[in-house]
Design a protein that fits this description.
127 residues; 11% strand; elongated; 3 helices; Glycoprotein, Type 4 Pilin
């Protein structure tokens, strides 16, 4: 009777090879999910940057027309012109670039690389 119990206890657990196979399969699944999710996150941030920049541009254009000066984002916040909840930094936590030209305002996000003047900048000009 003791032999049967010993045999069962040896076979009751999983072998190292079985555990490694499970870990490898889980790693492959996690990699596949990561490869699919990361581009979605980047696209969502770009869309958010475009939306926020368009909001800031509209408010900054009104400021420019009323005051005759090109505002900064901090001025718009300090004067209470920007609504609560409007992001004062882009989705990559970089400051917005505002440039005024007559009655139009050009708002630019530095984009994922956080440097202005590169390919991934996200400009919002005329609506």
């Amino acid at each position: 009777m003791q032999r049967r119990i010993r045999r069962r206890s040896r076979r009751a657990g999983m072998t190292l090879v079985e555990i490694m196979i499970v870990v490898i399969i889980m790693s492959l699944i996690a990699t596949a999910v990561g490869m699919a999710v990361i581009p979605m996150i980047v696209r969502a941030r770009i869309e958010q940057a475009s939306t926020d920049a368009a909001t800031i541009r509209g408010v900054a254009e009104m400021w420019l027309i009323e005051n005759g000066t090109c505002p900064s984002v901090s001025e718009l916040v300090d004067e209470g012109v920007l609504r609560d909840g409007t992001r004062t930094l882009d989705p990559w936590d970089s400051p917005w670039s505002l440039e005024c030209e007559r009655t139009s305002v050009h708002v630019t996000s530095a984009g994922p690389d956080r440097e202005l003047g590169t390919e991934d900048d996200i400009p919002v000009e005329e609506g």
